[in-house]
Write a structure and sequence with these properties.
Number of helices: 5
Number of strands: 9
Helix content: 25-40%
Number of domains: 1
Shape: globular
Order of helices and strands: EEHEEEEHEHEHEH
CATH topology: Rossmann fold
Largest sheet: 9 strands, mixed
Structural class: alpha/beta
Distance between the termini: 17 Å
CATH architecture: 3-Layer(aba) Sandwich
Length: about 200
């Protein structure tokens, strides 16, 4: 039985809380994305950045209230943003963080030598979703080709072709400069809300 994820409803605060997870191989730019977003957002619309730092891995988390997305049926919208540790041996941590996610930003490393790492991690992401009873088809995912300033770099479309995925929103970014970062966040937020409205 495939289940559909549902956001957390807080009737007392009149809030709908969505969870976005930044997923991808190690050093692809997941943390850089979140740090830029947190730095860019106005203080009144964001919470503190929490860093769960162990000796070998790091997970970031914060929440924010988007200004432009308004309300849904009288409820204000709130997003929790997480990163996952990208190194391949942190499978247990990734599965735990991914639980309850409403959408994913897959941060791909555009360096040519990282093609196989990207493919392997994307497949692991789908396996993690299935392990939580979620069908990856139709689940909100935005594919972000990060590090577009590197040369040589992966051509756009190669990951979709190798993975056999179609119709997925794709963005380009240079997270170290903030280019494409907020656009990616906007896209995944809208994908999640649109899916929520038709459930």
């Amino acid at each position: 039985m495939v289940k559909r994820t549902m956001p957390h409803l807080d009737p007392a605060e009149k809030q709908i809380v969505f969870k976005i997870v930044y997923f991808g191989p190690g050093m692809s730019g997941k943390t850089t994305n979140l740090l830029f977003i947190h730095r860019t957002l106005t203080d009144r619309y964001k919470g503190d950045m929490l860093v769960l730092d162990t000796e070998k891995e790091r997970t970031l988390f914060f929440d924010f209230f988007p200004v432009s997305l308004g309300t849904v049926q009288g409820y204000s919208l709130k997003f929790h943003l997480y990163t996952i540790p990208g190194q391949i041996y942190y499978e247990a941590s990734r599965r735990i963080i991914l639980e309850g996610a409403d959408g994913i930003v897959f941060v791909a490393d555009s360096r040519v030598e990282c093609l196989e790492d990207n493919i392997q991690m994307y497949r692991l992401m789908n396996e993690n979703l299935v392990s939580h009873g979620i069908d990856p088809d139709g689940f909100p995912v935005v594919l972000q080709y990060n590090k577009r300033d590197c040369n040589p770099r992966l051509r756009l479309g190669i990951l979709e072709k190798e993975l056999g995925i179609e119709g997925i929103p794709v963005t380009e970014s240079i997270a170290t400069e903030g280019r494409g970062v907020m656009r990616t966040l906007q896209l995944i937020s809208k994908e999640i809300i649109n899916r929520f409205r038709i459930l």
